[in-house]
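Render this sequence as a predicted structure.
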Amino acid sequence: MKKIIWILRILFVVVMAALTAFVAMHQKPAQTNILKAILTNSQHDENLIRLSNRQSGRINIIFEDDDAQRLGDNVRIFKDKLDKNVFRPSNVDVKKVLDTYMFFEHNLLSEHTHRLLKDKDFVTVKLQSYDRLYNPVGYNPVPVEYDPFLLFIDYLQGLGSESFSGQIEFDGKIYEIFSVKIRDDLALSPTLLNVEVKKLIDLKDSFANEKTKIYLSGAPVHTYYASSKSINEINIICILSSLFIIVLCRFYFKSFKILVPIFLSLALGMGCGYLVTSVFFDSIHILTFVFSTTLIGICVDYSLHYFAHNRDLKSIIKSLTESLLTTVCAFVVLFASGITLLKQISLFTISGLVTVYLFVVLFYPLICKKINFEHLQTISYPVLSAKVRYSIIVLCFFATVTGLFRVNFNDDIKDMYVPPKNLAAAEKLYNDLQGNNFNYSFILVKGRNNQELLEKEETIIDALKGKDFNAYSLSRFVPSIKRQKENQWLRKELYKKELNSYAYFLPESARNKLLHMKYPREFLTVEKLNLPILKEFFIDKNTTVIIINGNFDKRFLPSGVNAIDLKNDISHRVSVFRTTCIKLFAPAALILYLILCFIYSPKAAFKITLPSILGGLFSIALLGLFNQCVNLFHILAMFLIIGFSMDYSIFRFNGSKNTHLSNTESAVLISCATSVFSFFLLSMTSFKLISSLGFVLAFGLVSSYILSVLLISTTAEEQTDNM
């Protein structure tokens, strides 16, 4: 037997060394994208992620002042101080783009004017042309004798304010938006990204003053604040959890010596969790690390029971194994959820728990021989009659049923992350300046080449005419050759019908020249127009996206074309996952019950599983009783409650069969306290999805522990009846 144990010890060391070597050679980056945490790897979800990340590397720098000259000077100085190797301006070279557009001016009409001319509404076109012509602050880069209807400036204005840099007056202040794109390799590396964004924030803080204010918006800024805060929260949780364990061990064991093997086991557990997760995933989400800190409260259970039973491994090996089995079963259900974050948490925790279990079983008898300490203090519970105990359980059951009927679900993805107030204000200001209403939809267009893509985009946008929306697309900046030919014909028709009656301010010779002008047979293409914004419309080489800002009737979309509403589609996916998890709860509980039935009698298995199941349901019911919305992660917490709290019932049930009954009670209490403390700290984190888990887990574990005390007697006589 000793030979087998030594073989297992050597195998343990070899596997850990192999994992360490593999991960050292294949280091995986940290992931901070919230959507990748809650969506699956399906094609639909991949499209959602790609669309949401369309501007993931873009930062908008918003300057505010009440003096236009000073504002412009400050923007230029700020640009000069930026590291151009890292932050690449996405604003366009206006002169170069205008020169290109002007060369093809006869091919260009705004979508609005194109529709009017196609419908032969020449009267409206004339009236709008008069407005542009007599606008005292109007500007037309093309002389009026070459473009009397000012159709070219109408086209430029239709492109939108994002296309060209310039100052914007809003709410009594003058603003200018300077957008930069972070280098792709930096944008994909959270560690490097945070370093560069921190430099930008420091530059902003040193540059801003009372007269000139600077705001930052964009996904990289949110990533910096979110990941930095998460790292700080991880450190605080680890420190506080460790201090809590130290205080408990000193109070109950009167010794600090046991802390060495305890923290060694925790380090190995968390290290192995990271290593195994790195092997199976391309990146590890930052929220996985946040959640993994709960291993401090869970893995310490095995060590506490080992020392509480005076290093008598034989007396607890069955309970330890059953505890590991039930917890692993609970996390296996999470792995089957299909959500990347939950799969990572599941794999991280399972591998960490198995590692700690093996370390306690294989190495504690070897390294803890000389650790001496005083026994745990005796825990005594108030003696309650069976009638009182079962009355409390019945009341808890009815409260649970009542609360569950009052539960309201919230699947809104926006509620999963609450940005800091300063970032929320900056995002609102940016959207106000750009005229965005936050109601975006996306249409993916596929084509064999650019011309086919452009023609398909124009067909889709034309089908939506007359609706309250703005469509931003590649074809808005570069019309298809087919559309450019049509624009030339429409312009000729306008001149033929209305030029003489409209452009009476021009000499007859100038009008005749316009009427008989032969337009060049050269056309504008994507390749000829050097406009950075065009790249943002490409999802890949053969796919572009039409961005629709506003409300439109999807019934007008051509057959086979679907609009993706990010907010609603993601919320729908979250709702589907939540429903799936609710349906899995009963089968998961039944599986655990059947496993315990093989070990104990059906009656005993029922007593062991009931506190955990009722505790999980009661924690959700409490939210319903207090009119708090329940989200996906509250539901997922119920699975974890079963896996964690089942330990309490198992150890208490088996406690009467060894000579350390009072020590078992104390160890269970300390185990519950450490886990609850860790989850309570998680409930105070900034990420709502993790804090949701933390709150429900903390309350659910307390409820399960109390119910196990009420339901499971540790007297030998009653336990014998149940075996």
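Summary. Residues 715-723 have pLDDT under 50 and may be disordered. The radius of gyration is 33 Å.
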